[in-house]
Amino acid sequence: TNSTDTTEQSKELDQSGPVEETPCSSSPPNPFDDSDEEDEEEEEGGEGGKEDETQTPRICKENPFNRKASPSPSKSKTKPPKGSRPARPPAPGHGFPLIKRKVQSDQFIPVEDIHGEMSQLEKQLDDMEQRGVELEKKLRDCPNDEDEEHLLVDWFTLIHEKHLLVRREAELVYTAKQQNLEERQADVEYELRCLLNKPEKDWTEEDKNREQELMAELVTIIEQRNQIVNNMDQDRQREEEEDKLMEAMLKKKGQNHRKKGAKFKPIKVLKRLSHKGEPGHSRSSSREKS
Q: How many domains does the chain have?
């Protein structure tokens, strides 16, 4: 009986034919792929449904919308070892020979030229004061109004010329101060660079104190230079206003001073206007500052 059963099972296997194997990946089928539907329609429309013909294996395509990026290997973050605070890096140019910065610009004026020009300005201002005295005498003794009008024009012109000389004198004083500060700043910067070029481990307490002194002096020099620039700007604005006022006075030609009984002392006004534009109380004090 057992032999008959085995023979019957083998016959059934021979009649059923080879088992179809369909390789398929674990990924789900693509809903937009119509290849499976076309295969089913061809099988239904075939004549007789031949079972003996070998069928091509169906391959499941990968879903393009189900792509996952491969996990990138995590980069291990290396932390710097904890320890003492790193030492201060050396100053720029460490190891190279230090060169002192030269302070010479296009507008640099030697000290000898400044003193020479200021002495010439002193002589010109003294001559103008003498001319002012002579004009005052003529204005007092002038009986004619027309001559007095011309003298007033000459007097105002003299004031304007004196203002120009006083302005130039003030510019020279500012220039001398500015150049002195620039030279001192170059010396301080050079000494500070020499000190910073020294290794920090070789520093003494005296070196640290000297560094603080040089830094404080450098800040003071910069503030003084800025103050000089601000003063020059203020003087320039005041000079523009004085020029406009002088031009208006020249147009009027001294009509307000032709009234009878008016006490007119042009030499006092001339001195007052000249001292107004000076940076110090007098020309001698401004020369000492330079």
A: 1
6 domain residue, yes or no: no
Determine the average pLDDT of the residues in 141-160: 81
Find, among 176, 186, 163, 285, the residue nearest to 236 by Cα: 163
Read off the tokens for 259: 């009234």
Question: Quick check: 210 pLDDT over 90?
Answer: yes
Identify whether 72 is part of a domain.
no
Q: Is the residue at 184 inside a domain? A: yes
DSSP conformation letters of 102-125: P---TT---HHHHHHHHHHHHHHH
* Distance from chain centroid for Cα 287: 37
What pLDDT is recorded for position 232? 93
Q: Could you give the angle at which helices 145-196 and 266-276 cross, rounded to 10 degrees?
A: 20
Arithmetic mean of pLDDT, 142-171 = 85
- In which domain, by residue range, is 122 found? 111-289
Q: Give me the percent of the chain exceeding a pLDDT of 70.
A: 51
Phi, psi of 93, rounded to the nearest 5 degrees:
80, 20
The lowest-confidence range among 1-10, 92-101, 199-208, 268-277 is 268-277
Cβ atoms of 125 and 283 within 8 Å: the answer is yes
Does 221 score more than 80 pLDDT? yes
The answer, as to whether pTM is greater than 0.85, is: no
Please indicate, yes or no, if residue 77 is contained in any of the structural domains.
Answer: no
167-180 exposure pattern, b = at least 16 Cβ within 10 A, e = fewer = bebbebbbbbbbbe
Show Cβ contacts of residue 148 under 8 Å, excluding neighbours closer than 6 positions. Answer: 139, 142, 254, 258
Question: Which own/partner contact pairs does 216-220 have at CB distance under 8 Å and 24+ positions apart?
Answer: 217/188, 218/185, 218/188, 218/189, 218/192
